[in-house]
Design the sequence.
């Protein structure tokens, strides 16, 4: 397995509070890697640093040989590292189809864009049914799906997700994880940040456990799922 993204000794602070305290991790190409941990562990902060929205106090984020921590958020997206916007951050006054078109704004390959549009509609049939409708009329879960679909329209090399299951009913949570697995089967590398530890580790090839800004466990998703410490701390014993 070759690596596609590597974080080395990443530290991120808010003022004098160090939220991420020098973490290192690797994403293998074509795999789902999960970063799990409790509320406030520093998961979102890690993602914001990868996306370039927060500047690290130290450390690097390598995409192949490029240090993303030196690039603007815009250039990071162009280099292929795309974070799914929070479900609510879609453009509610535009149609679903227009939101998806916007996802492809950096691209010029019209034929491929049309193919990708068909693909994301097949992943999320509910979006296809309502393609001409306003995004604002979608339910919370459907908006989350649209946010994922829009990110896919950018043709990312690495897809970043911050708690895609948050606030969703159990049935929708399952649907989102099913689709993530399906997306991964096409070879897309996924970095999944989740508090839903069990579901995340079920679909992830590798996982890291973050506690108060430090990685305390790193293993295969399968092994973490059966690790007594993980079960005790995150799966209700
Ligand atoms: P959550 O699931 O709640 O988002 P998380 O693991 O993603 O948790 P972060 O949001 O990254 O955790 O927060 C890590 C730490 O940084 C927490 O102690 C949090 O209180 C602190 N923090 C987060 N955002 C800010 C901010 N804008 N200003 C100051 N402190 C912050």
Sequence:
């Amino acid at each position: 397995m070759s690596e596609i993204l590597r974080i080395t000794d990443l530290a991120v602070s808010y003022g004098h509070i160090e939220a991420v305290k020098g973490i290192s991790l690797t994403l293998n190409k074509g795999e789902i890697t999960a970063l799990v941990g409790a509320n406030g562990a520093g998961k979102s902060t890690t993602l914001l640093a990868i996306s370039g929205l927060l500047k690290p106090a130290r450390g690097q984020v390598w995409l192949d040989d490029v240090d993303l921590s030196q690039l603007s958020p815009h250039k990071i997206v162009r280099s292929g590292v795309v974070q799914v916007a929070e479900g609510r951050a879609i453009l509610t006054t535009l149609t679903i189809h227009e939101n998806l078109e916007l996802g492809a704004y950096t691209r010029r390959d019209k034929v491929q864009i049309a193919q990708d549009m068909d693909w994301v509609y097949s992943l999320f049939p509910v979006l296809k049914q309502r393609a001409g409708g306003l995004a604002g009329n979608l339910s919370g879960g459907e908006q989350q799906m649209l946010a994922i679909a829009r990110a896919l329209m950018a043709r990312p090399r690495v897809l970043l997700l911050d708690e895609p299951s948050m606030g969703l009913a159990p049935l929708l949570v399952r649907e989102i994880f099913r689709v993530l697995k399906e997306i991964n089967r096409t070879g897309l590398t996924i970095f999944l940040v989740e508090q839903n530890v069990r579901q995340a580790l079920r679909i992830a090839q590798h996982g890291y456990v973050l506690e108060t800004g430090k990685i305390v466990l790193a293993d295969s998703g399968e092994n973490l799922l059966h690790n007594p410490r993980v079960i005790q701390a995150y799966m209700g014993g």
Q: What stands out?
A: DSSP finds ten helices and ten strands in the chain. Residues 1-76+194-237 form a domain with the Rossmann fold fold (CATH 3.40.50.300).
